[in-house]
């Protein structure tokens, strides 16, 4: 039961993220692209990819723990 609740909160938090953040994170985590390939795909810097992935992971971690954004 608790696991489902955590997953539901994480899905909700992921959907609430800006589309670009979801896309960049998805390229790294779901499409298995490295940061350089992801930056090329999205027309941004590697640093922006690093920052975006970190921001998304923080948001998902907070959601999993039930913390407010």
UniProtKB/TrEMBL annotation:
A Gene Ontology molecular function term of the record: DNA binding
GO biological process: one example: DNA-templated transcription initiation
Range of residues in the leader sequence: none
Pfam family, one: Sigma70_r4_2
Segments forming domain RNA polymerase sigma factor 70 region 4 type: 8-57
SUPFAM superfamilies, per the entry: Sigma3 and sigma4 domains of RNA polymerase sigma factors
Listed name of the protein: RNA polymerase sigma factor 70 region 4 type 2 domain-containing protein
Protein source organism: Sphingomonas pokkalii
């Amino acid at each position: 039961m608790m696991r489902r609740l955590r997953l539901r909160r994480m899905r909700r938090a992921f959907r609430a993220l800006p589309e670009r953040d979801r896309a960049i994170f998805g390229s790294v985590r779901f499409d298995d692209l490295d940061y350089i390939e992801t930056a090329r795909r999205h027309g941004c810097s590697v640093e922006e990819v690093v920052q975006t992935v970190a921001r998304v992971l923080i948001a998902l971690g907070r959601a999993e723990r039930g913390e407010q954004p």
